[in-house]
Design a protein that fits this description.
- The protein has 254 residues and is an alpha+beta fold.
- It is built from nine helices and seven strands, in the order αααααααβαββββββα.
- The chain has a seven-stranded antiparallel β-sheet, with helices on both faces.
- The longest helix has 20 residues.
- The chain is elongated, with a radius of gyration of 20 Å.
- It starts with 5 loop residues before the first helix and ends in an 8-residue tail after the last helix.
- The C terminus is likely disordered.
Length: 254
């Protein structure tokens, strides 16, 4: 009989739990054979898909529609986890068919660097929890942009898109992937949006990720990597990224 904590095990594997809950699940796994087996099977399947399956990048529009549909989905009885059905096929020898059935969903999500997504999410949460959201408070791009150029040694596009619903409130310096990052801060209603920009990122940037209820949108311009993160609707996040892409092209240093 399945353990009642099985759903938490899936969330633990996805890195979607806070530290306290993750520790609770780790202790449970030490004594629950059913959950330990579930974790091992799911992790094995994830590694198999990542190492063996071909990858086709979804368009930003398709990814946005899928993520929007997931956000709007009404609560309903959860079906069996997709990888449980896949694992049954694998153990029966139907590897190709099982993988094909599951990859239709997996292809929507790029093979993002989990470390990068976690790093950005932690930086966002840290700024909110410590109330260290802004080093320079201003709604004037001619104040924020030069400040970032001086203190972060790079100059990302900065704009006040108040008419579009995104109000510039300031900027600060933070760190992403071990590199100094310029952070432009916007508000959308009562929500904070951190827009990180940093140089010399050589890895593949994901397009869109979700972690702990936060939508994260990545893009690249010139020698700068960008990432916007907030708990607002994904469509709004994509609109802000579009506005920033349309702003003055950054040269990475001013």
């Amino acid at each position: 009989m399945p353990c009642d904590n099985e759903t938490l095990v899936h969330a633990y594997l996805d890195g979607a739990l806070d530290p306290a809950k993750a520790l609770e699940v780790e202790r449970h796994l030490e004594t629950c054979i059913e959950c330990a087996a579930t974790l091992e099977q799911a992790d094995t399947m994830r590694r198999l898909v990542r190492s063996e399956a071909s990858y086709h990048r979804a368009s930003p529009e398709l990814a946005a529609r899928v993520m929007g549909a997931l956000d709007d989905e009404t609560p309903r009885a959860a079906p069996p986890p997709w990888y449980r059905n896949v694992w049954t096929g694998v153990s029966g020898g139907a590897v190709a068919g099982a993988l094909a059935a599951s990859l239709a969903f997996l292809a929507v999500l790029p093979p993002a660097s989990e470390a990068l997504v976690t790093d950005v999410t932690n930086a966002h949460l840290r700024s909110i929890a410590s109330e260290h959201i802004i080093d320079v408070a201003s709604t004037d791009r001619h104040t924020v942009k030069p400040w970032l150029a001086t203190h972060a040694d790079l100059s990302p596009p900065v704009g006040d898109f108040t008419r579009e619903g995104f109000t510039l409130v300031g900027g600060r310096v933070d760190f992403v992937d071990g590199t100094r990052a310029a952070v432009t801060v916007y508000r959308h209603g009562r929500h904070v949006i951190n827009v990180f920009a940093w140089t010399n990122y050589e890895g593949r940037l994901p397009d869109i990720a979700t972690r702990n209820g936060y939508h994260i949108v990545f893009w690249r311009q010139g020698n700068l990597a960008f990432c916007a993160i907030s708990d607002i609707a994904l469509d709004d996040m994509l609109e802000l990224s579009r506005l920033l892409k349309a702003a003055t092209m950054p040269d990475g240093r001013e």
